[in-house]
Specification:
- This protein has 14 helices and five strands.
- By secondary structure, it is an alpha/beta fold.
- A five-stranded mixed beta sheet has the order 1-2-3-4-5, sandwiched between helices.
- α5 packs parallel to α14, α6 packs across α7 and α13 packs antiparallel against α14.
- It starts with a helix and ends in a 32-residue tail after the last helix.
Length: about 350
């Protein structure tokens, strides 16, 4: 098959995927079954239990209704405890200083949000803080998805990446967040010019990933024209960063990015104030009410849930009492002594 035909087929499959994701009528039976199993949860959290959200979890669990429902409940519990939507720019600004992760100011040809990841620009030691910033970036990217979009694009730049940047712990936690907390949010991940050393590390990374996740990972090399066609099929090359072979010379600027994030926070705050229903309630609960909701979630919703779900929420309440709740299971221990890139990468600004 020619490269041109291959990429035409890839584009067609992407379009078919989007149609399938949003064709509620085709999967109404599965959606309704999940809603039935969720019981009171679907009533109390209608904003979280939308059809597109349920479809993502069904896809993540290969249309197994019971597994999708369990995963959905786990995720809702995590959101109530970890409160990802309450993370503010000022909470993560230090992590963002080098531009190791940022949301691009352009989208791909399908309108999908783009996250740029530069693991060679790591500037902190705490895996927990790094994951918190990743969650912030995921929430930011999702909030900017165009209507009808469910997934995003990751562009991974390997500039300055070397052996000192390898962190199995951070990689494991990143995979856990992506797959367990944001299922079916990754459309495609482009690894641009990964060094030979990373190709060996990739063999260690793959066991952390589900098959459907690592199949979305594409290796692209600037000296291999047939792989560069992947980027050309996805992006307007005039807008794509020069770091990825595009023609845009705009670089990451921390101060400008900070202003952009704060402006979006203010906009979101204003929209939240104006989103109350006529009776004074909100479809998606206000952040200040989440402490009360955890208690209600435990006392009312659990009456209709199985015993394992009851135990999970009890663990969540214990985590909630801690100053810094963990990502993932309660047995996951994150330390502040993880690997960091060498000192030449520990810079406070990346100009542009």
């Amino acid at each position: 098959m020619s490269s041109q035909k291959f990429y035409r087929n890839a584009i067609q499959k992407s379009r078919e995927h989007q149609i399938r994701m949003w064709d509620r009528t085709q999967y109404i039976a599965e959606i309704n079954e999940v809603i039935k199993l969720l019981g009171v949860v679907a009533i109390k959290f209608p904003g979280q239990c939308s059809d597109p959200a349920i479809l993502r979890f069904l896809r993540a669990r290969n249309w197994n209704v019971k597994k999708a429902t369990k995963m959905f409940k786990e995720n809702l519990k995590w959101r109530l405890v970890y409160k990802p939507d309450r993370i503010q720019w000022d909470d993560v600004a230090q992590e963002a200083e080098t531009g190791k992760i940022f949301r691009a100011n352009y989208v791909d040809k399908y309108g999908r949000t783009v996250l740029v990841l530069r693991p060679g620009f790591q500037n902190t030691n705490s895996v927990e803080d790094q994951i918190r910033y990743l969650v912030y970036c995921m929430e930011s990217a999702i909030s900017r998805l165009e209507h009808g979009q469910n997934d995003m694009v990751w562009l991974i730049d390997f500039q300055r990446w070397n052996a000192s940047c390898i962190s199995v712990k951070a990689t494991r936690e990143t995979a856990r967040v992506l797959q367990d907390r944001y299922p079916e949010r990754l459309g495609i991940a482009i690894l641009y010019n990964p060094p030979k050393l990373f190709e060996s590390f990739w063999l260690l990374v793959k066991p952390f990933l589900e098959q459907k996740t690592y199949k979305k990972v594409k290796f692209v090399y600037s000296d291999q024209p047939h792989t560069k066609k992947i980027l050309e099929a996805l992006f307007d090359m005039d807008k794509l960063d020069s770091a990825f072979g595009g023609r845009s010379t705009e670089n990451f600027n921390f101060d400008a990015y900070a202003t952009r994030m704060k402006d979006e926070e203010r906009q979101k705050s204003e929209e939240s104030k104006n989103s109350r229903n006529a009776d004074g309630t909100t479809t998606i609960p206000d952040p200040q009410d989440s402490d009360i909701m955890i208690s209600e979630f435990s006392s009312e919703v659990l009456d209709e849930a199985d015993s394992s779900w009851h135990n999970d929420v009890r663990e969540a309440e214990e985590l909630y009492d801690m100053d810094q709740p963990h990502i993932g299971s309660s047995t996951s221990k994150l330390s502040d002594n993880d690997n960091i890139c060498d000192e030449k990468n520990n810079v406070s600004r990346v100009g542009g």
